[in-house]
Every structure is written in structure tokens, then in C-alpha cells.
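Look over this one:
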Amino acid sequence: MKDFLIIGGGVIGMMTAWQLAEAGHEVILLERGECGREASWAGGGIVSPLYPWRYPAPISRLASWSEGRYGYLTAQLAETTGIDPEFRRRGLLYLDLEDESHAIEWARRIDKPLSRLDAYAVYAREPGLVDGLDGGLWMPTLGSLRNPRLGQALRARVQTLPGVALYEHCRVERLSVESGRVSGVETSAGRFTAGHVILCGGAWTGRLLASLGITLPVRPVKGQMMVFKTPTVTGSRQWLERVVLRGGRYLIPRADGRVLVGSTLEEAGFDKTPTPEARDSLYASAVAILPALAECEIEHHWSGLRPGAPEGLPFIGAIHGVAGLFINAGHYRNGLVLAPAATRLLVDQLLGREPILDPMPYRPRAGQGVPDAAANEAPSPGASCL
């Protein structure tokens, strides 16, 4: 029997497997599709909550811990796997903020670099922005990375670890619970057993827990994005050099000149179909920030499912009423942002180490569900969860 079994091969699941294996444990990692191809792939790669001053303090603590790790983490992955996640710290421009004074006060309180720029300084940084701006806020420390490449690098790293057994295209049908303790899972590829089971299934986590009669408020929230292919630029400057945020939508530059625009927020269940309405809306937002994008080809339009949770606060810790069952899910829009801290916090608990942060704000509450005995029976055909 392996020490740990992780359900979900996104950034959260792969980082967890990496840390547990490096600590000397044997790990099974199960993924319903291909690792890193769900929300971890579909996002934009900004290594910060979009408006960090609007989030509860527990999220800010996770984000602050994670932010300082990505430079080292991505450099290590690039060196060991040959896949560069393209982490760049070029800063973020906020335009037309309604709560600018609140943002500045938040930054002053936590000693975060954030300053007011006049229009001249804004256009000096990004000459191609739409005319008529009267200035903005500047966060110079913000970083971004190419999240599909982060997923590829993590997958490559996990595959080199002798303690990790990775199974892709392996759909979890149900959790096996005996005498109040989880003993493993039943999957499309057979039964797997482990001493501890960790749910990192993103938007699908709540559905899997429901098979045990446990209600946890993690739901799918659809987000759609697009990428523009800009013309080849001679010299050192691309059309866009840094992340720009305006009216709840953002533009993210890639090292090769491509520009991403995102994203929508839709309650559409598990439907990931891109829509013409979202395409038009994203296009309008992109051109309203960088007008020259109207001349560019839309290279790709896609969607993904975020694991929504109340206040965007993830659930990290033991599931009440089922010994050996743990969760790390519900990160909403900030799974990549919070991943280094969220995974380290759970691994600290699993290995009995001093946690990096107080784990109490993230623990699933006892009142959020205790499994019914009948729920442990095999589900009806077609009830696959992950």
C-alpha cells in the first residue's frame, strides 16, 4: 500500500506529489485526463490575485508566501526538465480603479510597492494603450508565467521522481471508506489503495465528496479567454510588455509577443463550450485597452472551469468524519497564485511539521458534512466523479 494517493493532476496535485516524494514517501497520482490540462492550463498565469486588497486576509497570506517562491521554483523546473515556464516580473498597471484609495491604503499597511502614476508615466511604460488615460496605479513586483508550460514542467518533474506512480486518463469512480477510514479509490483502471487520500480535483471535488454524502461548497465557475497573435517586432520592445488591468479584464503579454485577454465569470455548470458572446466581449475589452489588437489575428479562444468556493477561500486540511481523507481545493481564480503555499501548508500537516501559516482559516468545518453509511455503497452506473 502506498503512503499517499492524490486525486487530480493539476498544479496543486503535482506540487503536492513532488513535495511528498522528495520527503521520501510513495505517492500515487491519478488524473482523469492529462496532467495540467484543466484549470491549470486554462488560466492566464498572473502570480497575484487581480485585486488583492479585495480579498480576505487568509488569501492574502497564502498569496504573499507564494509570490516569493515562483522565481526559484520556475528556475529549478527549467533546469531539471528543460521546460521554461517563462516567469517574468514586469509589473502590473491598474487603469480606472474605483477603489484606488483603498488599494493604496492596503499597500501601505502591508508595505507592498504600489504607487500612483500620471498619464505620462503610464504611456512611457506602455505607449500602445488607448488614448485618454489620466494615469493609473503601478505594482512593479507583480510576476506572470506561462501556465501551460508550468504544467508541462511539473509533469516532467513528477515523472522523474521514483516515489511517484502517475496514472493519466484514469477516472475515479468513488472513494472507498471502511469503518470510517478511507482505504483507497475505485477507478476506470481498477482499485488503488493508500494510507491517505488527498482530493485536488478542482471543480470536480465537490461532486466526488457528494458520493460520500458530504456537502462541500466547491462548484465549477466557467471562464473564457482568448489570445492574439501580434506581428513580429524587431528590436527589444513588444506591443505589450506588462500586465494591464482595466474594468475587470486583463491583458497578459507572452515572451513571444502574444497577448492574452481574460476572462469571463459564468455559472454554467460543467459546460466548457466557448461562446460567440464571450468572444465578442473579450475582443471588445482587449481593444478598449490596446487598440492595435484590432489588427491582429485571434489565434485561440478557450474556456476552463474554476473551483469556486465562498469568498474564494480554499479548503485545505482533513475532511471531518473520514479518517485519512484530505482536501486542497476551492482556490477559485487563484489556484496557480496560491499553489506553492497551499500545497506546502497541506504537506506540513500530512507530515506533522510546523505549518508555514495558521491552518485554521482553511480547514473544512465539521458542519459541512459527515458521510452517510449508505453513501459508501457503489454509485449507480454513469455516476463517475473524476
Observations:
- The CA atoms of residues 85 and 149 lie 5 Å apart.
- Residues 335-350 form the longest helix (16 residues).
- The mean pLDDT is 92.
